[in-house]
């Protein structure tokens, strides 16, 4: 997550934003932004998407997975559980096979796809690497 912290700090500095103003603009508590900046905890998927949307950047750039920001218009993200089912089916996997090959525990995957919990950003990055695609693609922000 240190790349995320560096990128977020750089983006905020470019826009001359402090934690309070960014928080106000994306609808989170200022203390959340401060905790992200201090590396105390990782943002939720919703927060990552809101930050990326605010700065008009890819989530991959924001997370430090890409060195170039290919700013473009992004789609609204579908519910992550639905998107994961769609991607797994599109790749020709059953849920069980996907879990076995990706290393994602089955109970966790099925909790995500049932909408009981959301994956954390580290899990989304792991899925994007396994599927050989961008985080934005996994989230449904790009086609």
Describe this structure in words.
Helix content is 61%, strand content 0%. The protein is built from 10 helices and no strands. Helix 2 packs across helix 3. The longest helix has 13 residues. The two termini are 25 Å apart.
Short description:
This protein has 143 residues and is an all-alpha fold. The chain has ten helices and no strands.
Would you report the number of β strands?
A: 0
Secondary-structure element sequence? HHHHHHHHHH
- Strand content is under 5%
**Helical element count?**
10
Q: Alpha-carbon distance between the termini?
A: 25 Å
Task: Give the key terms.
143 residues; mainly alpha
Write the layout of secondary structure elements.
Elements: H1 2-14, H2 19-26, H3 30-37, H4 45-55, H5 59-62, H6 80-90, H7 95-102, H8 106-113, H9 121-131, H10 135-139
Helix pairs in contact: 2-3, 6-8
